[in-house]
């Protein structure tokens, strides 16, 4: 987790204080359930809640851990310092450390998911607004980086919207994947703890009980979770790449917002770098790198080994913090992205109508000209445009063989941009719903 | 795709003949839709269906492609050789190659998904059967590879069932991810083709129209698809790892089925290697390696570049064929897996009751013995077991300080395996539903 | 391995016939060594060489394997069919299958390395020629896709040369990594085979003996090998990316060679797609995906498990065949790459001298103008260029505050391209050696 | 970077204070070189060295950066606060930020390499000691987790030694890969800075000048560097896996050192978990995950984009810190690893001589018994051992058909462990050099 690429709410989820708070809640709810079952005295369960509003002393817990070399024992010791040894004596009874640790990790991932879901929702709002704003802003579509046919900037935003909407749906699924808890003991048999305790704790913590766990919650869930983050990150890279292309000097159809105060902006007006988009490209790689280790974590030995733990200590915070930061940065970037419609128009006409050559070719054949002849006619006019800088439509109108097959109006129509945008509303209705 | 790791049905999806057949269907359905719209003559659309039962000549198409250097044109040329140039003249009208190629790829992935779904369903049947069969077969649970507490072999199978059931659900989602088609033209604007054509073709091909495409179907869908295959592969590795551990000489609780005829089986009865499980471990790596490139494929330039194509030519067939093979191999492996309950019992008692030391420790404290004393009591008896090969229960029963706190019946109860299996039915009901 | 992305020499290395030939040579050389040691009769060793010029019948071997389910035994059976059972009776004596298989795999990788090394050498020749050709072809350098300062196209080629030269060196190291053989028996102790046999076979096969093997050659070697292929692939992606950028419509400084006959070339002269470079981008991903599984292969269990085998059956051929194809394609691409110097000059001047603003700013401060004033002066002239389309130098020469600090000659000098190219020879000497 | 998995010396390399110190040295040495060239006054260059022993105020620099939003400018401002604006006025002249940043990153990687090289050297010392100690400690070799033939524990250590020795060599190569610096300006042309400055700075900083750079040092170097770390991590996983297997309850030939004070050690003597080895397995995944993003970083756009930067801010510290920690942990683990020779012997004899069945089979055929008969003889005796728990050698000696072919001495010899260890010295000489 790199401080400059983190935001406070997400970072807070991964702080020791948050972790201990969740541990505490799990233990306290477990005591409640055990008291309900008559396994431990009700007053002991109640007494544990005395620590409800106490802030745990992280340094103190660390100090105890340094001695005991066991984090959960360290925490329990500190808890008993707060609520009293007698009140605390039944805390954690019948439980194994993983009951607390694994359930906590999932609570953290659920909370992280909630932030990421909100991030995606916020991004969608902005993408939709920009899509509507530029629904009719014509821009040349490009395949292979080469001019193809006209499209609109609104369609570009709309497709990013649709993609991020899919990501929102995937993120919700991913949240469900890891919204489980387990308090099932050393090998998952509930030998020392009643399943009712697990049910109660999960209910209170916003989780569902893991149907079958070992000592740990199965890691295929986490693999699916981090894979989803990787897909979202890849979509971020996709949008970032579009902006980077749009801002390059020769294209200059898009520009990251550049605040007036930013040094160098006006002494070198040509040198505004799409650094945010480039940064997002790198951040996407960082999120994505969590995917493979999360998958390697699935095949634990027998009822568990601890090889996954160090991996998760890293990718748990890092991937969620980085993705949260990236989504927020992207939202701001799209929100303020400077779009240059005039420049889009200029680029569209860069080769003076040549992008319409395909339509003309088709029209000629439909008018009865043989494929070979149609090809020859388009070619000889296209080459004048390409090599001599002439205007394609003008050349066509002046070519008697062409005008013998197509009327002036027909030729003019081939250069009508409305031909290309006639279904934009249809597509928008598909993406955003009927207006 | 390695022949020895492929099965015919899945491999057939990726054969040229299949591809051309799908291309044909897309083109023919598109003609129908265009005829309905009055864009092309109905008789031409009808005539295209003359090729319905014709087997395309792959070599001939290849020969044409070698000349034209364009696969779709080669196919269309061959099609016109079959149905006649006149009938074929409106085929592909207004379409772009990607309309056919991308929609076809998704049809292939959908069909591959159907096989993978069936594979998972078949695996689940077998896992459930083995789980029920060994519901009460007690086996020591292990954390860190070290004996922990008893569990049952049925629970092991049940947890693999639950995991594969999640994978089935993920696979169905993945199928939905890529069950879309697009016939939207060079930059996705439907400039030259009516959205109704896309709707008709998708309907006939078992797909839904991609709400917004560019020249291509957005690749976040494919990234999510291949990520799912990677998760499933990781689960396969997990089961394979369990079997490999179970078969190692010192454990020998499990054994891959070894047919009587297999050379060397009885001259070296100790040397039966879990080669299928090891192979599955490698195959899991092969499937998983498709995940990252599929994610790298998402950020295409503008309305498309072709960088994803070579990647998909490889991972499309390879990842699905390998996963299909692996799932089928795993199903056979689990189906016939030899389980040795007697050996499980023997291993469980390897350290003569020491695995119960935790329960005894807990019982002593609950009986009012201080933690320090309880610990000391357990320790001094445990060390006799560990160092001198004695029996733990016998030692405890002979230790007056222990018997002062716990009755003989209480001590006996600590060694009762039923304590550990009492919730097996509950867990089974969670996993398989109420009986 | 996708046929369209493979070349015959590399593909041949991975064909069954080649594999059996190598197996044969290993077995025959091993017989020689054993005869020298007096372990087997000399005439038997000699007799094995009768098969020296015989082409093995792959189908026959496959048929035997289908029965015996053991590839090496199948081969040995076939060999005995050729040289006679008596001659063959000492073949493979004391050896384990892996002795043959692992040594063979490394022979194949060494041969693949030799092709890749030749590929890189061929690429270097072309890169050097293009670098020298365009040593002085000025082109704007770009950071963040934005115009920065002038450089030359020769320097672009030179840096790719330097990078590929490093890759050549890495490839040679990678070859050395896997140029080892092992004939050390079931667990690497030479219990049944003398180390002298290993030495003799390795010597004949162009390998060095693996200092210590288990049943297999350690896989860290292969991990390092495939990692190297991944690095080279990444460099290919880097060059491909440069070309893709250079060919995009708005830049058009570079163009993949487009043969006269290629369909559509002149009817749509603006639509020449950098499909080879895009393809190389995808191929780079394919090569790179071998890296992680090769690393996952390192941690085999004890003296070996067979999990690595299926992985290597795939990545062995696929990664080397794909990289060979990619390098050859890249060499052809660079060889014929169309470079447009006029267009480079045009792009360089796109903003009428603004790319020199930094030099002017520096000159003003060096002339004693305060930073703030210098900045203000540059800014007010730059904005006229940026917003009103004027020429930067003209504006500066007309600004009395500027000319008060800098003479006309000094201002002129700031726009002298030679300033930027003055060290090109130095850099070329560093890269290519003194001329 | 996770504090619990970091060591102070490596962590210190990545602290802001270290970074600023390196920046300073680069700037100061550059001033010296410029003074030597007469580009700036000597006294200014000298004055910069006044800050030589000053500790930079990181908070102050951060505060300035918060304002200027440019880290290098912030540092230079702080420097001028220390040495005085006049002295500082020529600092950084003609340089671009990347000149400092990239060169600094490589200085950090070189220093990290030095630590990693020392780590590997320390590990080698320990591995060699343990290898010599257990040169003759016989242990059953295992393929597929199944008993194969005897080997020695010394050979296990020796092979890890050989593997880590290769890693040491790779690490030295990796160090050389990134031991370059560049001070070549905005696009690498040395337009504003003389190559002599780069030479001087590199010389002083322990680097060699990058032969050709753009704005940045080419990233194929870093890809190769991080790939090497990934290979080393995979070797660590390999050793860790061996120990985890060796410590599992049923094997128990190895045990991680368990300090007397460690809680629970003696109350549950059977429950000593190989948590360090498991942790190393996870750490290996963490190091390895840097490899792919480092490769994705290679294809920067034109003369540079900044996408690599966020990736390197993460993997630079994380991969080196984690690998350093892992190597140190592994060294301690191997150093104190508890080896149980008696248990090894016990396991070796687990199936009462069956592991020798292959030798007996071979001996029978060599004694003239047909393959079929030999097989039948071994089989009937082996099955008595396998199914009835008898002793293999005893059975063979009692089988008249066997003794008809082999004398008692010959049979005895087949069970002689010395047969398997006779070449241990040869192998040790290969690995460690002649004694």
Automatic annotation (TrEMBL), chains A, B, C, D:
Gene3D superfamilies: Fumarase/aspartase (C-terminal domain), Fumarase/aspartase (Central domain), Fumarase/aspartase (N-terminal domain). It is an enzyme of class 4 (lyase). It comes from the Bacteria. Pfam families: ADSL_C (PF10397), Lyase_1 (PF00206). GO terms for cellular component: cytosol. Residues 352-432 form the Adenylosuccinate lyase C-terminal domain. InterPro entries: AdenyloSucc_lyase_C, Fumarase/histidase_N, Fumarate_lyase_CS, Fumarate_lyase_fam, Fumarate_lyase_N, L-Aspartase-like, Pur_lyase. It comes from Palleronia aestuarii. It catalyses: N(6)-(1,2-dicarboxyethyl)-AMP = fumarate + AMP; (2S)-2-[5-amino-1-(5-phospho-beta-D-ribosyl)imidazole-4-carboxamido]succinate = 5-amino-1-(5-phospho-beta-D-ribosyl)imidazole-4-carboxamide + fumarate. Pathway: Purine metabolism; AMP biosynthesis via de novo pathway; AMP from IMP: step 2/2; Purine metabolism; IMP biosynthesis via de novo pathway; 5-amino-1-(5-phospho-D-ribosyl)imidazole-4-carboxamide from 5-amino-1-(5-phospho-D-ribosyl)imidazole-4-carboxylate: step 2/2. Belongs to the lyase 1 family. Adenylosuccinate lyase subfamily. This is Adenylosuccinate lyase. Keywords: Lyase, Purine biosynthesis. One of its GO terms (biological process) is 'de novo' AMP biosynthetic process. GO terms for molecular function: (S)-2-(5-amino-1-(5-phospho-D-ribosyl)imidazole-4-carboxamido) succinate lyase (fumarate-forming) activity; N6-(1,2-dicarboxyethyl)AMP AMP-lyase (fumarate-forming) activity.
């Amino acid at each position: 987790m790199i401080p400059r690429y983190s935001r406070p709410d997400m970072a807070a989820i991964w702080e020791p204080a948050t972790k201990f708070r969740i541990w505490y809640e799990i233990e306290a709810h477990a005591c409640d359930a055990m008291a309900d079952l008559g396994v431990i005295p009700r007053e002991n369960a109640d007494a544990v809640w005395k620590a409800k509003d106490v802030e745990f002393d992280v340094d103190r817990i660390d100090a105890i851990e340094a001695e005991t070399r066991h984090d959960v024992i360290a925490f329990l010791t500190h808890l008993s310092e707060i609520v009293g040894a007698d009140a605390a004596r039944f805390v954690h009874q019948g439980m194994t450390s993983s009951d607390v640790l694994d359930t906590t990790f999932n609570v953290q991932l659920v909370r992280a998911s909630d932030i990421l879901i909100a991030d995606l929702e916020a991004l969608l709002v902005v993408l939709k607004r920009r899509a509507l704003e530029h629904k009719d802003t014509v821009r040349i579509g490009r395949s292979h980086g080469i001019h193809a046919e006209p499209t609109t900037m609104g369609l570009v935003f709309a497709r990013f919207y649709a993609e991020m909407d899919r990501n929102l749906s995937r993120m919700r699924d991913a949240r469900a994947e890891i919204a489980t808890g387990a308090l099932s003991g050393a090998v998952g048999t509930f030998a020392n703890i009643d399943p009712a305790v697990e049910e109660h704790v999960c209910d209170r913590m916003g989780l569902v009980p893991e149907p079958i766990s070992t000592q740990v919650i199965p890691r295929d869930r986490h693999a699916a979770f981090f894979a989803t983050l990787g897909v979202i990150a890849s979509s971020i890279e996709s949008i970032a790449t579009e902006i980077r292309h749009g801002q390059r000097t020769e294209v200059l159809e898009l520009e990251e917002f550049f605040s007036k105060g930013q040094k160098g902006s006006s002494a070198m007006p040509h040198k505004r770098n799409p650094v945010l988009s480039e940064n997002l490209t790198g951040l996407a790689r960082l999120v994505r790198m969590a995917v493979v280790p999360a998958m390697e974590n699935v095949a634990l030995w027998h009822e568990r080994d601890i090889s996954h733990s160090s991996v998760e200590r890293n990718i748990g915070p890092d991937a969620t913090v980085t993705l949260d930061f990236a989504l927020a940065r992207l939202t701001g970037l799209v929100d303020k992205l400077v779009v240059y419609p005039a420049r889009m128009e200029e680029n569209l006409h860069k080769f003076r109508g040549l992008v319409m050559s395909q339509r003309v070719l088709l029209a000629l054949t439909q008018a009865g000209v043989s494929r070979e002849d149609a090809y020859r006619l388009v070619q000889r006019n296209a080459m004048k445009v390409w090599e001599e800088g002439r205007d394609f439509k003008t050349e066509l109108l002046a070519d008697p063989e062409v005008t013998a097959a197509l009327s002036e109006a027909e030729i003019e129509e081939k250069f009508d941009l409305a031909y290309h945008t006639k279904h934009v509303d249809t597509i928008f209705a598909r993406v955003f719903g009927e207006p």
